[in-house]
Amino acid sequence: MLKMIVIRLAAIVTIALSIGALNNPPALALQEESRSVQLPRPSGPYSVGVATWHWIDASRAQDSAVPAEGNREIMVQLWYPAQVSETEPTPYRPISQGRFKFVTQNSVAGAPFSDQVRSAPVIVLCPGRGTSMHYYSAIAEGLASRGFAVLAVDSPGVGYVEYPDGRIVNPDEAYQPSFELITGPYDRVDSFFEPAVKLGLEDIRFAVNQLRAIARSDPAGRLTGRLSFEKMGAFGHSLGGRICGAYAGTNNNVVAFASMEGVAPPAERRGGLKAASLMLYSSELPEEMALPNIREIFDYRRAPSAIIRLEGFGHNSVTDRPLLFPESFSYPIDPTTALSVFDALLGEFYEARFAGRSFPNPHVQLPRTVTIIEASEDQAEPSQAG
Fold it and tell me: Does residue 328 contact residue 315 with C-beta atoms inside 8 Å?
């Protein structure tokens, strides 16, 4: 019994640290890499284009924790279904001065929008604390290859941000939770993350409004009339799950919300999300840490909801990082396999929910790495939510 308690405590410590900081991933990329890494090929039928913007919100000042003056500056990237010929894929992080030249991705910058997709629904992607949107490229490419447009934002203070002029803003330590905080009571965790959620949520809203303007009239001529905001999706990882959960809970256009080891803020998860939800967690995360707050989303649901455990996954298995830096991770599942499984699972979730179909599909056998904990196509009964 003592051995089991010690192992459990070690697992909780590991998860608490990874949820908070994601191990400062940009520092790993400074190492010289002699090998080459190819991101998995996207599972959808379309090629993928990518556009990157540096946007300044003139209505807001920089966060007080960011070592810069002036207005709020964010970096934004959009992956979309594209018409691609023999063009070379875009570098993994084109503004990172060649530090990621060992990585080959599948997206092409500036590619024409696919003539086979009339209008792509927008899915907002919220990275975890302390990391960058680029580490979610495999996920974003997979969704874009299925006909979605994926919008991701790097928020100064919340994550790691690199600007075109070479400036770098590291994540603010004020948003790094301690082990004592993570282990509860959970109301303290909710309160601790309120400022970071507010900051990230305002960045997302600003970015979506900017993208709407481009979709009305794109100076580059690629996206005019090609993006749909009537039905949107949201995906978040870790702290990004809170931020995208807040966005889903306050934006009626979001019809499908998925999160990996991150829960929506209390007002949204207990108020009953109108969006269909998919809550995911790794087998590395102890059940007593994962399920109580996830179950609040399920128990208060106002739309179809599912809870899934990913066997052999770790907290970062849904990012590119274990594939790029395998020496820094020891998850049971192979990184390429993990990304392929997650690509198929997330793609099927959004395709089903946007089409009004059930998820998971009862007629499709899921991989052994996917365990359904709860799933319902109905709203919660009032008695379930208390």
Answer: no
